[in-house]
């Protein structure tokens, strides 16, 4: 019996070691992204109250740590949001966000740029949208793009994240210049929209505000609206800190980009340098990794929706 017990214990320990090796070897390449340059280190982090004003739901916007961070709250009474004090033409825009945990179906957290208040019929928009989940799914990250009022032709792409966004803060970044728009998560590019002739007519080209919101997207957010917000789990709180707003600031009372300015350097466009014109090899590796491992929807692959794909989908 002792011999049998010893062998059983030995085999069990070897099996556990094997399982640990398999888990590590499997999870490593899937859940740990490639090393990339930390573009967020190029620009200064701001307190939330330095860069933003309350957009809506004032009672559900709670400044914390003397305004260096903020909580945005969704409950039965209202969602809430912040809007940048300035409007920007091109630049680098980042927010570190921590998302609400538990049952979040129908909840939408957005970090985006828009000028719909100034150009209601031909506005531009660059979107991060984080879509809540039912008990069987993780948060979904959706990116979208509208240009020059192309609001009837969404350009959505959807991803599963490689981390739990409710456990800690993670960086969500928009890099926008004349060469391309890049969406980044923790400095890893997840999507690049190259400014070429195929997309030029709908490429965002007017100054925009930077906005962060939490709101009720029951009609569409989780499995096409199958799972609405359950307010038994409210309040839903997302926290925001360490924002970066480095762009060409549009002067008041004009929409002309030639009148914008930067306070920090002589260059009007903070992302006009060579290092921001195209992705590096490291960044391309990261982009490829995300899109192969974590992207599960792209409008450019949706032949049911588009009998003829948008021109940028087939351009080189």
UniProtKB/TrEMBL annotation:
Signal peptide positions on this chain: 1-26
An annotated Gene Ontology molecular function: hydrolase activity, hydrolyzing O-glycosyl compounds
Known EC number: 2.4.1.207
Chief location of this protein within or outside the cell: secreted
UniProt cross-references to Gene3D superfamilies, sorted A to Z: 2.60.120.200
Compartments (UniProt record): Secreted, Cell wall; Secreted, Extracellular space, Apoplast
One GO term describing the cellular component: apoplast
Domain of life (superkingdom): Eukaryota
Active site: 125 (nucleophile), 129 (proton donor)
Domain GH16, first and last residues per copy: 24-240
GO BP field: cell wall biogenesis; plant-type cell wall modification involved in multidimensional cell growth; xyloglucan metabolic process
Xref: SUPFAM superfamilies: Concanavalin A-like lectins/glucanases
Cross-referenced InterPro entries: Beta-glucanase-like (IPR000757), Beta-glucanase/XTH (IPR044791), ConA-like_dom_sf (IPR013320), XET_C (IPR010713), XTH (IPR016455)
PROSITE patterns: GH16_2
PTM comment text: Contains at least one intrachain disulfide bond essential for its enzymatic activity.
EC top class named in words: transferase
Keywords, alphabetical: Apoplast, Cell wall, Cell wall biogenesis/degradation, Disulfide bond, Glycosidase, Hydrolase, Secreted, Signal, Transferase
Protein purpose: Catalyzes xyloglucan endohydrolysis (XEH) and/or endotransglycosylation (XET). Cleaves and religates xyloglucan polymers, an essential constituent of the primary cell wall, and thereby participates in cell wall construction of growing tissues.
PANTHER family in the cross-refs: XYLOGLUCAN ENDOTRANSGLUCOSYLASE/HYDROLASE PROTEIN 8-RELATED
Family to which this protein belongs: Belongs to the glycosyl hydrolase 16 family.
Protein name: Xyloglucan endotransglucosylase/hydrolase
Organism from which the protein derives: Nicotiana tabacum (Common tobacco)
Gene: LOC107789579
């Amino acid at each position: 019996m002792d011999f049998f017990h010893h062998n059983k214990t030995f085999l069990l320990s070897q099996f556990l070691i094997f399982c640990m090796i398999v888990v590590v070897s499997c999870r490593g390449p899937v859940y740990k992204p490639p090393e990339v340059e930390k573009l967020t280190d190029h620009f200064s982090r701001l307190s939330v109250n330095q860069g933003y004003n309350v957009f809506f739901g004032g009672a559900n916007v709670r400044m914390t740590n003397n305004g260096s961070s903020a909580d945005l709250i969704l409950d039965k009474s209202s969602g809430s949001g912040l809007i940048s004090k300035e409007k920007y033409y091109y630049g680098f825009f980042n927010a570190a966000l921590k998302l609400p945990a538990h049952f979040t179906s129908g909840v939408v957290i957005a970090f985006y740029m828009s000028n719909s208040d100034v150009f209601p019929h031909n506005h531009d928009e660059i979107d991060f949208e984080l879509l809540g989940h039912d008990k069987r799914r993780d948060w979904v990250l959706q990116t979208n793009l509208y240009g020059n009022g192309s609001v009837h032709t969404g350009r959505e792409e959807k991803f599963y994240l490689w981390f739990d966004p409710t456990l800690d803060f993670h960086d969500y970044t928009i890099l926008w210049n004349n060469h391309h728009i890049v969406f980044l998560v923790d400095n890893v590019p997840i999507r690049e929209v190259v400014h070429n002739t195929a997309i030029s007519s709908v490429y965002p080209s007017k100054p925009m505000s930077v906005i962060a919101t939490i709101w009720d997207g029951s009609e569409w957010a989780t499995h096409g609206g199958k799972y609405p917000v359950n307010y038994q789990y409210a309040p839903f709180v997302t926290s925001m800190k360490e924002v970066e707003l480095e762009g060409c600031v549009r002067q008041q009372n004009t929409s002309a980009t030639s009148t914008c300015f930067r306070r920090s350097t002589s260059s009007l466009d903070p992302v006009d340098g060579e290092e921001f014109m195209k992705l590096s090899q490291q960044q391309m590796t990261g982009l490829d990794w995300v899109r192969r491992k974590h992207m599960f929807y792209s409008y450019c692959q949706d032949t049911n929706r588009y009998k003829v794909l948008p021109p940028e989908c087939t351009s080189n």
